[in-house]
Amino acid sequence: MKALRLHAVGGPDDLRLDTVDVPSLAENDVLVRLRAAALNHRDVFITRGLYPKIALPVTLGSDGAGNVAALGRDQRGNFAVGDEVVIDPMLDWGDDPSVWDDSHSSILGMPRDGTFAEYVAVPATAVYAKPKPLSMEEAAAIPLAGLTAYRALFTRGKVQPGETVLIPGVGGGVQTFVLLFAKRAGARAIVTSGSDGKLERARGLGADLTLNYSSTPDWQRAMRSERVDLVVDSSGGETLRKALDVVRPGGRVVVYGGTAGEATIKLFPLFWKHVSVLGTSMGSPDDFAAMLELFGDGLRPVIDRAFALEDGTAAFARLDAGEQFGKIILRCSETP
Ligand SMILES: NC(=O)c1ccc[n+]([C@@H]2O[C@H](COP(=O)([O-])OP(=O)(O)OC[C@H]3O[C@@H](n4cnc5c(N)ncnc54)[C@H](OP(=O)(O)O)[C@@H]3O)[C@@H](O)[C@H]2O)c1
User: Fold this and answer.
1) Quick check: CB of 284 below 6 Å from ligand 1?
2) According to the model, what pLDDT value does residue 112 have?
3) Which of 12, 84, 108, 174 is deepest in the core (most CB within 10 A)?
4) How many CB atoms lie within 10 A of CB 236?
5) Residue-range domains of the chain with CATH
6) From the CB of residue 190, how many other CB atoms can be counted at a distance below 10 Å?
7) 199 Cβ inside 6 Å of ligand 1
């Protein structure tokens, strides 16, 4: 089969389209013939060596959707060959719904070979029925980013109808899901982006107030009159500091990343306003199942562009340059 594999950690140019054996199956595995996969910033970080314990060569890719192609010995009867499925990239979350067991859990697509290939072998516990209304490309767009957004907004952030949510850097893969889910939950959404084009797209998805953090570096001043109940952030850096300025007394700030670097936060607004700062990463199996349900009745992910597997390095370049709005897709195989 064809697989987009990383051979060194010098960046996306170290990816090669190799011909390798179709993965063999353990007793509890399912072999999925992938129709589509999607990129996450994690994939770019790994190509640069910015991840612990990188083992090479490896097939990257955490997100995928496709058809069941074969079943491990203990899984016969649970799925049928041909079933349309989507994969939960959070492997072995553990028994505690409040936090993953990070001594055992892992994310599909390093160290375990991932979805930028024609086939992937995954534990059956990670395989879910594809939401029927979604195309294979749409289903492939949602796993890692949708799961992270779901847990950040609902499980950790506990968003309520009528609340105002601040979503910095709305163009990112995860943040577009936060916007979609916040609107679905009946919240008001304030978003920032470095691009006016992305802000226009966000307005099309229901963003109520949009601010450009590049042309208005003091965007937090421009929203002083707003009452922000919840911030969901992956930028870190100055953005997190500003979020503490704008969140209301008693509000919540949920953090799942630090794209713009480490943050030095101001302590006074944190304690004076009784702000809750909540960390989160990926999500539990319950979060994944609940997230998929949101796509059962008309909600659709935002897809930026689809590339052939052969053009994987061009897809990485687009993500690396931050040109995307929503998810970048790789087409893995044309037929089930
Ligand atoms: N902990 C977890 O489980 C988890 C899961 C997924 C992702 N993450 C992390 O979350 C981050 C985003 O991941 P992703 O896959 O969604 O990445 P992505 O699609 O590449 O998005 C990155 C986004 O960050 C925004 N950004 C960059 N600099 C910014 C700044 N100074 N202020 C505000 N926003 C800024 C940009 O928004 P605009 O283009 O709109 O300006 C960009 O779209 C990464 O750091 C990733 O590692 C963590």
Assistant:
1) no
2) 96
3) 108
4) 20
5) 2-142+301-331 (3.90.180.10), 147-279 (3.40.50.720)
6) 22
7) no
